[in-house]
């Protein structure tokens, strides 16, 4: 047998039908001696590399002849099953099955060295095989810097992955070792704990705010008056719950009552006491047609008798008809004074004897106060969380709040309360509540009776 016959049989497909043995088939590496035609005495023939036809493999495998150099044969269309990520009809030399071996084998065909080249500035239009993305696999961002070594650790806490931490190329040029891996793992663990703590803090804060809002009432219809209220929890850590509260209701005699209060404390007992005091005060206010000072006195007596509620400040006011106008009739228990803003933007704090907070001494009498109101006036009640700042005086914060209210008095009450809560002069260490009530105009349908 000469070298040409051996070369033809070495390139013949094992599955080809009779009469087509000379047709070139896919390269196989079963017997190295079978592909070296010159080793059997025949001269080695060089065949030019044929151009691949449409649908055939792009490229050819090279068979090394130790005597006369490489001998090349074209590759045919793959007849085996498609592989994941491959285009149909294309043979990848590094994924061709090895003949004579059970199961799929792999070998790499030596490629001709190519010079390094910069990436093309414009993307290629030819279709390329894209590997399928694995769920949960985080890929590097587009265009990472050149790197020789990469060390990556997942940032995870309790089985939840928040991200990955990557390091590339040590300064000394050495590859990463076990110590580097331990350091990066510790850093990723600390970052994961910090992220988890922040997530739990926000979750607790959201739950506390939701619980607090469930304890506060939804303001009913108070026609002919207009009312709105806003509550904001404290921003300081550990102060998720608070004792600030508000309420408003129409009384049987046609007047409107507004209340605001603050229970000492920033915990669950303070929130529970706030809800208890609010309900008791609402019942006493609706049942007893007495001045606000007597209502607060009966509330203080009840708290001492049947509860262990902490110290509480409060301001109770009634808007009553007075001839052709209105008047504000109020009493406070150690609380901040009400703020009256006229329709023209003038402001006035109703400073008066504040009395003792609830829960201190029920025997001390509580005074009442009155102030005339004009049509279109706005009465603002608020808690200390709106104006207290550790590095500023209380008077300066009160003046800033009055100027802010005067500048936005033309807004509707809901928007006015949001502006005051968003731009308050305090530092946000305490929760806050704002209650606004606006009197009807003279031309409206709600004139005093």
Based on the model shown, name its key terms:
5-stranded antiparallel beta sheet; Beta-Lactamase; alpha+beta; 449 residues
Short description:
With 449 residues, the chain is of the alpha+beta class. The chain is 23% helix and 21% strand.
What can you tell me about this protein's structure?
- It is a single chain.
- With 449 residues, the protein is of the alpha+beta class.
- Among the domains are: 150-207, 2-Layer Sandwich (Beta-Lactamase), CATH 3.30.450; 216-438, PPM-type phosphatase domain (Phosphatase 2c, domain 1, 4-Layer Sandwich).
- The protein contains 6 helices and 14 strands.
- The protein has helices at residues 3-10, 178-215, 268-287, 292-306, 394-407, 413-422; strands spanning 60-65, 69-74, 150-157, 160-168, 226-232, 244-250, 256-263, 312-322, 325-333, 339-341, 347-349, 369-373, 378-382, 432-438.
- A 5-stranded antiparallel beta sheet has the order 5-14-13-10-11, with helices on one face. The protein has a 5-stranded antiparallel beta sheet with strand order 6-7-8-9-12.
- Strand 8 and strand 9 (325-333) form a beta hairpin.
- Helix 3 crosses helix 4 (292-306).
- The radius of gyration is 43 Å and the shape is elongated.
């Amino acid at each position: 047998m000469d070298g040409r016959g051996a070369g033809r049989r070495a390139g013949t497909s094992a599955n080809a039908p009779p009469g087509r043995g000379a047709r070139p088939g896919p390269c196989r590496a079963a017997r190295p001696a079978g592909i070296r035609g010159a080793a059997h005495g025949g001269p080695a023939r060089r065949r030019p590399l044929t151009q691949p036809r449409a649908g055939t493999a792009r490229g050819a495998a090279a068979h090394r002849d130790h005597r006369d150099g490489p001998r090349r044969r074209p590759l045919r269309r793959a007849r085996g099953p498609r592989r994941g990520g491959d285009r149909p009809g294309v043979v990848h030399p590094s994924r061709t099955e090895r003949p004579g071996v059970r199961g799929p084998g792999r070998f790499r065909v030596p490629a001709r060295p190519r010079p390094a080249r910069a990436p093309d500035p414009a993307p290629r239009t030819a279709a390329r095989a894209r590997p399928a993305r694995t769920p949960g696999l985080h890929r590097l961002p587009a265009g990472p810097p050149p790197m020789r070594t990469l060390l990556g650790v997942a940032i995870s806490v309790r089985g939840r992955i928040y991200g990955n931490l990557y390091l590339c190329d040590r300064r000394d040029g050495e590859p990463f070792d076990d110590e580097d891996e331990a350091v990066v793992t510790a850093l990723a663990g600390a970052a994961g704990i910090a992220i988890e703590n922040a997530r739990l803090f926000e979750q607790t804060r959201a739950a506390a705010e939701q619980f607090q809002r469930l304890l506060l009432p939804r303001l009913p219809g108070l026609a002919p008056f207009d009312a709105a209220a806003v509550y904001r929890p404290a921003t300081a850590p550990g102060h998720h719950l608070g004792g600030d509260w508000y309420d408003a209701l129409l009384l049987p005699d046609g007047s409107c009552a507004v209340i605001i209060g603050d229970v000492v404390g920033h915990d669950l007992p303070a929130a529970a006491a706030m809800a208890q005091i609010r309900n008791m005060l609402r019942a006493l206010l609706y049942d007893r047609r007495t001045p606000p000072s007597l209502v607060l006195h009966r509330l203080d007596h009840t708290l001492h008798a049947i509860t262990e509620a902490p110290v509480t400040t409060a301001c109770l006011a009634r808007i009553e008809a007075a001839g052709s106008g209105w008047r504000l009739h109020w009493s406070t228990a150690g609380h901040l004074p009400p703020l009256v803003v006229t329709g023209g933007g003038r402001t006035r704090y109703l400073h008066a004897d504040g009395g003792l907070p609830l829960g201190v001494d029920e025997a001390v009498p509580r005074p009442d106060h009155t102030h005339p109101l004009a049509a279109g006036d706005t009465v603002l009640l608020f808690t200390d969380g709106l104006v207290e700042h550790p590095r500023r005086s209380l008077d300066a914060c009160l003046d800033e709040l009055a100027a802010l209210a005067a500048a936005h008095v033309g807004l509707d009450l809901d928007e006015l309360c949001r502006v005051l809560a968003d731009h308050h002069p305090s530092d946000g260490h305490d929760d806050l509540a704002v209650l606004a009530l606006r009197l009807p105009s003279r031309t409206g349908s709600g004139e005093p009776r």
